[in-house]
Amino acid sequence: MNISLAKQKAKETVSKMTVEEKISQLVFNSPAIERLNIKEHNWWNEAAHGIARAGTATVFPGPMALAATFDPQLIKRVADAVSDEARAKYNKSVQYDDRDIYKGLTFWTPNINIFRDPRWGRGQETFGEDPFLTSEMGKSYVHGLQGDGDFLKSAACAKHFAAHSGPEKLRHSFDAKVSQKDLWETYLPAFEQTVKSGVIGVMGAYNRTNGEPCCASPSLMQDILFDRWNFKGYYVSDCGAVADICNHHKYVDTMSQAAAIALKCGCHLNCGQAYKSLIDAYEEDLVTEQDITVAAEQLYTVRYLLGEFEKCRPYSDVPYNVLDSKEHRALNVEVAEQGVVLLENKDNFLPLDKNMQKTVAVVGPNAMNIVALEGNYNGYASEYITLADGIRRVFTNADIKVERAVPIIGDITRDIGWDSNHMKNGAAVASDADITVLCLGLDRTVEGEELPVKNDFSDGGDRKVLTLPEGQQKLAKLVLENCENVIVIVTSGCAIDIGRELTEKAKAVLQVFYPGAMGGLAVANVLSGEVSPSGKLPVTVYKAENSIPDFEDYSMKGRTYRFITEQPMYSFGYGLSYLDCSYSDAVVLSEDEQTIKLGFAVENKSSFSGNEKVQVYARFTDSRTVTPNFQLCAVKNLYIKSSEKIKDTICIDKYWIKAVLNDGTRVEPDGEIELFIGNHQPDSRSNSICKSKVQKIKLK
Questions:
Q1: What is the dihedral angle through the alpha carbons of 473, 475, 476, 481, rounded to the nearest 10 degrees?
Q2: What DSSP designation does 187 have?
Q3: CA dist 86 to 50, 105, 156, 312, 318, Å?
C-alpha cells in the first residue's frame, strides 16, 4: 500500500470519530473503539538488537557491537531477521487477541544519538560516536525492519531527536546548548539520513535543545523535520517527555498547555498520559479539532501501512518457529564474531590451537555472566553461551577452570555476601593454569538508562570514571602476578581504559561490547582462529588521564576522534586482525555532483582468510571554520582469502566531505581535500600500532 492510499484510508476512518475518540488514539496505549470495530493498539515496542521484553527472541549483539562490524549490509540482515520475529509474535498475539504492550509492530528503534561522551550509560544503545557510521547503520537497520514489500513489515523509529546523550539524572530538565555548527555537523546528520531514506517514525528526546523542549520544538520539529526534510511519518514523545514540559522544564504552567504546545508542534503520539489533558486544552481553545484530527490521521496512516485492517493481513504466513531459530542463531554467531575488536596481540599469541591440551583458567565477573551477553533493551534467548561456555565448546581437549572472583562493582572484602578469599581463588586458579582468560568489564546493572545506582563508579547509569571498577583492577593485578599468559576479554557498552599494566603485560586484549546470546561461542571462535577478528572500534578509547570536557557541555570541541586534541589509548576505527593486508593502487575512477568512486587493491599476505573492513576518511582545510581531524566517509566489507589480492571499488557520498560553517551550512571546502583508504583511521596513534599503511589521494 502506498502512503497516499494509506493516508486516504486513515482520513476516512478518523472522520468517523468524535473529538474524544480522536484524543484517545493519541496516547501510546490507544483504547479500542468498538462501534468502529477498531481494536486497542499499544504503540510501545522495542527492538534495538532483537525483539525486547516479549518472551523468547534472538538476542543479537548490542548496538555498539553491531556498529563494531563496520558492515551496514550485515546489520540489515540482522534487522530483517528481527522483523521476521516481530511478525511471528504479532501473528500469534492477534490470534489470541493479545494487544498489550510489546506485542505490536511499531518499534521505537534505532537509537541514532551520537555517543559524544564515554560516560553516558545509554551510549551502548547507539552505533557509536561517528555521524557517518551511525547514519549507515541506522539506515540499514531501518530498511531491515521496514522491509521492501507493499506493506511495512514493521515500523522503525529514529530516536532521540535531537542532541540527546546524557547526563541521565538530568535528562527530564536538561537544556542541551548546541551551536548551529555542532548541531548540523554532528547531532543531526543521522536523523537527516534516516528520514530521507524512509523511516516512518521519529521520537523526540526528554531534554530541551537550545531552550526548546524536544517534543515541542518549533526549530527542530517544524523548521527542520517537517519543512526542510519533508518528513511524512509520525512523531512520538519519549515516555513522559510531554509531562516534563510542564513538570520539569517549567516551559508552561499547566499540563493542558504542555499537551497543546506539543501537539501543535507536530508531536502526534504521546508515550505517557499527558495527552489525556488534550480534552481540557480543546475546551480551553488551546487546540482545535483540526489539530487533533491531523495527529490521528498521521497515526492511522502508519497502522494502515502495517496492514492492520486488511482482510488478508500481510506477512501472516511468518511461522512462530522463526523465533530464535537455528538460522537466526547462526546469524547471531556470525554477527558477534564480526563485532569482536582485537586491541592487542603480543607476538601473535593468538590464535590458540583449538586442539591444545592445556589448563585454561577463565576468571572474572563476566566469565559466566549472561547479563553481560544481553546488554539492555534485550529479549530472552532460548540458549545462552557465556564466555566460559564458548571456550569449553571450542577447546574440547583443554582443562577449563572457572572462577568469578569478584563482582562487577565493589571490593569483595567489603561486599556483603562475598568472602575475601574469592579474589585469591581467582589468582590461585590462574597460578595453576597455562593460560588465563580474564573476563572483565561491565553489564547493564551498572551502566544504562536512568538506573537507581549511585556509587564511586556509576551515577544513575552514567559512569564517573573511565577505568575498570576498583575490585576488577585488583583482580587483574593478582592474576598478572600469577599467570604469564593472560588474555583479557572486555564486555561493556562503552570504551574502558583497562590500565597500562594489563595492556602491556597481557598477551592479548579483546573488546567484545555486549556480544549477544551466542557471544561466548563467537569469542571462542576468534580465540581459536576459526574466525579472524575484523571488528573496529566505533568509539574512541580514551586514556583515563585524557582531558574530556564537562559532561554537560554539548560542544564537540575535544570530543570523539573528529575533534580530540590528545592521543587516546585506542582510536576510532582501530582493530587488529590475523590477516596481513596491504593497500595499493588507490585512484579516483569517476566523480559527479553527488559521489566519488575510488578504485583500490588490497592484498592479504597472511595464511588466514577472513573479513577485511575497508575504511575511507577525509581530511580537508577550510579557512572559514574548524574542520574535523578526519571524517569517516565510506566503509566496505571484503572477504579475502589467504594470499589473495583483490581489486575493488568504493563510493563516497559527497555529503560527508563538505565543511560545515558556523551557521550550520554544509559547503564545498575552500581548501584541499585528502582521502585516506585502508583498514584504520590515518591518525598518528593508529599509524604507530597498525602494520598496514593507509593510501592517500588528493582531490583537485
A1: 130
A2: I
A3: 9, 7, 12, 18, 9
Catalytic residues: 238
Going along the chain from its start, the domains and CATH numbers come out as: 3-316 (3.20.20.300), 329-537 (3.40.50.1700), 581-699 (2.60.40.10)
State how far the Cα of 561 lies from the Cα of 563, in Å rounded to an integer: 6
pLDDT digits (tens, 9 = 90+) for 531-549: 999 999 999 999 999 999 9
Residues shown for the chain:
700
Backbone φ and ψ of 586, nearest 5°: -75, 130
Mean pLDDT of 664-683: 95
Are 545 and 154 within 8 A, CB to CB? no
φ/ψ (deg, to 5) at 362:
-110, 110
Alpha-carbon torsion, ordered 125, 637, 586, 667, to 10 deg: -30
Residue recorded with cell 593478582: 478
3-state secondary structure 141-180: HHHHHHCCCCCCCCECEEEEECCCCCCHHHCCCCEECCCH
CA dist 239 and 241 (Å) reads 6
Residue 312, burial from CB neighbour count under 10 angstroms (0-12, 13-18, 19+)? exposed
Q: What pTM was estimated for this model as a whole?
A: 0.97
Write the single-letter amino acid at 500: R
| Displacement of CA 236 from its chain's centroid (Å) | 20
The DSSP bridge partners found for residue 88 are none
Inter-CA distances, 120 with 75, 172, 632, Å: 24, 15, 23
Instruction: Give dist(CA 561, CA 578) in Å, integer.
Output: 25
Q: Any idea what DSSP says for residue 336? A: H
Cis amide linkage into residue 351, ω under 30° from 0: yes
Rg value, the chain, Cα? 25
- Dihedral sign computed on CA atoms, order 378, 93, 105, 238: negative
Residue 459 pairs in a beta bridge with 454, 462
Determine which helix (DSSP H) or strand (DSSP E) holds 137, and give its type and residue range: helix 131-146
With beta carbons less than 8 A apart as the criterion, state whether 426 and 407 touch. no
Identify the three-state secondary structure at position 409: coil
What's the grid cell of residue 143? 530498511
Compute the distance between CA of residue 396 and CA of residue 388 in angstroms, rounded to an integer.
12
Per the listing, cell 583483490 goes with 646
Instruction: Tell me what the pLDDT averaged over the chain comes to.
Output: 96
Q: Confidence class of residue 413 from pLDDT cuts 50, 70 and 90?
A: very low
DSSP for 226-258, written as a single string: IIIS---SEEEE-TTHHHHHHHTS-SSSSHHHH
Q: Which residues have C-beta within 8 Å of that of residue 234, sequence separation ≥ 6? A: 200, 201, 202, 268, 269, 298, 299, 301, 302
Instruction: Report yes or no: 518 and 563 within 8 Å, Cβ to Cβ.
Output: no
The type of residue at 39 is K
To the nearest 10 degrees (0 to 180), the angle between helices 519-528 and 387-394 is 50
Q: pLDDT-based confidence at 700, cuts 50/70/90?
A: low
CB 162 within 8 A of CB 214: yes
The answer to whether the CB of 572 falls within 8 A of the CB of 560 is yes
- Alpha carbon of residue 44 to chain centroid: 19
As to burial, measured by CB atoms within 10 angstroms (0-12 exposed, 13-18 middle, 19+ buried), residue 605 is middle
C-alpha cell, 172: 527530564
Say whether 600 sits in a helix, a strand or coil.
strand
C-alpha cell of residue 414: 567489603
Assign 357 a pLDDT band (cuts: 50, 70, 90).
very high
